[in-house]
Write a structure and sequence with these properties.
Layout lengths: L2 E2 L2 H9 L3 H13 L5 E2 L2 H13 L5 H13 L3 E2 L3 H14 L4 H8 L4
Helix pairs in contact: 1-2, 1-3, 3-6, 4-5, 5-6
């Protein structure tokens, strides 16, 4: 398996809002080897929710962040196909809060 990543690690890494925690997030993410970190769909949904609700990110800035995470080989993402489909739908259809809803409500494998 791998190390489970919490949404706060991703938030610190992408927002750079706390220098001490950013340093720790960078150490973890930038030294990780392929498939060494596990990123659950619930964490992805929570991360997106925090970026939208707390930091005010709009879709045009959030979708590239999601795509960066999906393209990064350090992450093992259970239900990857569901996550990719949901983010693609979010990107193309512009639904309101759809990513969090689908990622949290769809049954796991």
């Amino acid at each position: 398996m791998g190390i489970a990543v919490d949404s706060s690690v991703l938030v610190r890494y992408f927002t750079k809002d706390d220098n001490k925690l950013l340093k720790r997030a960078k150490e973890l993410l930038e030294t990780a080897t392929p498939n060494s970190l596990v990123l659950d769909r619930v964490i992805i949904a929570e991360f997106g929710y925090v970026l939208r609700s707390v930091y005010g990110l709009k879709k045009d800035r959030l979708v590239p962040v999601y795509k960066f995470i999906l393209a990064n080989d350090i992450f093992t993402i259970p239900d990857r196909e569901l996550v990719e489909t949901t983010i693609k739908f979010f990107d193309e259809e512009n639904p309101s809060k759809i990513v969090g809803f689908y990622l949290l409500s769809a049954p796991g494998k």
